[in-house]
Amino acid sequence: MKRWLEPAKTVLLNLLVLASFCLTAMLWSNQPKFQFIEPAQYTESKPVQEKQLVQLVTPESVVFHYGGDRHTKAVATDGPYSMVVKEMSKWIFLDFSPYMLSNDKWGEIAREKMGLEVRFKSTVPLSIVGRLVTFRDEYDTRIKGIDRLWLYYEEDEDLVYALFLSAEEGQMMRSRTSISPKDLRESYLATGNQMPEQIMKVIKPERNYSAVEGAFPVWSTFYLPKNQMRMQQFRYSYETISNEQLIEGYFLDPTLVRQIMERDKTVIFTDGSRSIQLRSEQQAFTFTDPAYQQRAQEQSDEEKVQGAVNFINKHLGWLDDYHFERMKKSYNEKDLITFRQYLGSYPLFSQGDKPIDSIQITSEAGQVVTLSRSLLSLDKYIGNKESYVMSGPELYQYIRDKKLGNTDQITNAFLAYQTKVGDRYVDLTPIWVVVMANQADLYISAAANQRGGGAHGLE
Questions:
Q1: Is the peptide bond before 225 cis (omega within 30 degrees of 0)?
Q2: Where does a domain end: 173, 195, 225?
Q3: Does the residue 199 lie in any domain?
Q4: pLDDT tens, residue by residue, 85-113
């Protein structure tokens, strides 16, 4: 027996070695199937209504100047406005130069010369304006943005000039244009001739800027209707953004999101980095992303606004009709970018604790840090009622009669809709928004008594 024990061990050992070789060969020839994991990305809410930058930066109004202190105005729902805005892509500007006007020359251009004024809601970066028109030459880079583009006819030279104006910066420059005097008279001014007549109000600069300081005197103007106007009051139903839409739209991986309930009933969704603060009583939320990405170079104002547009495009979209309103610096040097909601040609301003009027973004180095917007969006039209709104003279008299403020301190006044959220509906009521120099803005019901506007009150 002992004689066969050693050969048996040898055979067994050989079998084990052979099995080991076979298993090794099998492992070598059969690689496991790896599954590649895609990097986490924001999940876009469906459907998403995207917009391009040029769709969001549009003129607030177009004012037609006929000389003799006669002016008319068209807004986005008027045919003359649409015609002028469409024609803007054909306008060419060249030979830019800084320009300075005396008060007498300002008065001559504003009240006596034929012209056309394209007005924006606030200062728009000049590079964005360059997307709406054509700049043939280099312009003065000291001017970062404009709030008005004013075309006027210089009779002595038989030329149409353009003034690029920034009341905020106290800056202006002038250029020649490709627009012929004939086109100005027979096309643009002719089409605006039947629009409602306006009273021009002028706010002269508190001091005369000097050329040494790099700024010139710039008149700020606004316009009020001479007579009462018809305006609709609307009622709409609304839709509410769900928690699921918020989580899918703003977080990298929805499965990592947890919900926190604060003592004041505020709901917070967070994945440990980004968060959404949900204020149910206000039907609004604030998204926060504290992560900071260092960028190699400073961004232009256009790039900052474009970044904000891209962010909204990818996260829930626009849902309603919005337009770029302004960009300004915050106390800590971050960029505050506001998009205002519109119905037709009128901006929306909220009443009460349920805002449904704007999207506000704070960005740093082009990256969105916070975003605030309403959970509500207008849905179906329910009904409307037509009414008359106060003329400019009546508005001024009303402010005086009610002792609401000094009318000499008014720097702007415009019609808008005030939103009031009810039980499953939103009422949109016409109001006058009156901007005062030394006090808070006034929000005044625009309803008139339909007896016609008198020619008093604006002196």
A1: no
A2: 225
A3: yes
A4: 999 999 999 999 988 888 889 999 999 99
